[in-house]
Structure formats: structure tokens, C-alpha cells
Amino acid sequence: MVEIIVDHEKCTGCGECISVCPAEVYEFNDDGKSDPVNAEDCEECCSCVEVCPEGAITVDVCE
Ligand code: SF4
Ligand code: SF4
Questions:
Q1: 38-53 burial code (b ≥16 CB/10 A, e <16)
Q2: How far does residue 2's CA lie from ligand 2's centre (Å)?
Q3: Is 18 inside any structural domain?
Q4: How many domains does the chain have?
Q5: Ligand 1 pocket, residue 57 CB under 6 Å
Q6: Which residues form the pocket of ligand 2, taking CB atoms under 6 Å from any ligand atom?
Q7: Which domain CATH number covers 47?
Q8: What is the DSSP letter of 39?
Q9: Could you give the 3-state DSSP secondary structure of residue 19?
Q10: I want to staple 4 with a disulfide (CB 3.0 to 4.6 A). Which of 13, 36, 38, 63 is the partner?
């Protein structure tokens, strides 16, 4: 499975990754940060990594 990490120190909760992801991998957690709750559905498009303005997302296949 793809490994997805969101650095919550960097995440501002802008929601861009939630909007762009075609597989609905991300949801907001209770702190308003993005969590990759459905990583098993990832289609490896790397759009989330590209769109995040904070550079908070790491997807291992998108290095
Ligand atoms: S790489 Fe694509 S499919 Fe996977 S979490 Fe990011 S936006 Fe969603
Ligand atoms: S795009 Fe980046 S900063 Fe915005 S919610 Fe997603 S992880 Fe957080």
C-alpha cells in the first residue's frame, strides 16, 4: 500500500488536497487538519503533493 504522511505542523487546513484527490483519500480531523484516512484507495496521481501550498504531504511513490 502507498504510504501517505501529512505533516500536521505544516498543514493549515486549506482543504486543497481534499478537493483535488480523485479517490477521496483525505478527510479533516477534529483539529481541522487533513488526514489520509483512505490511503488504500490512493490512485498514485500525486496531485495532492503538487497542490499542497505548505509542502505538508508526502506520498512515497511521488518522490
Ligand atoms: S496521490 Fe492522488 S489519489 Fe493518492 S492521495 Fe494524492 S491526490 Fe489522492
Ligand atoms: S493541501 Fe496541504 S495545507 Fe491544505 S489541507 Fe491539505 S495537507 Fe493541509
A1: ebeebeeeebbbeebe
A2: 18
A3: yes
A4: 1
A5: no
A6: 6, 11-17, 34, 51-52, 54, 56-57
A7: 3.30.70.20
A8: G
A9: helix
A10: 36
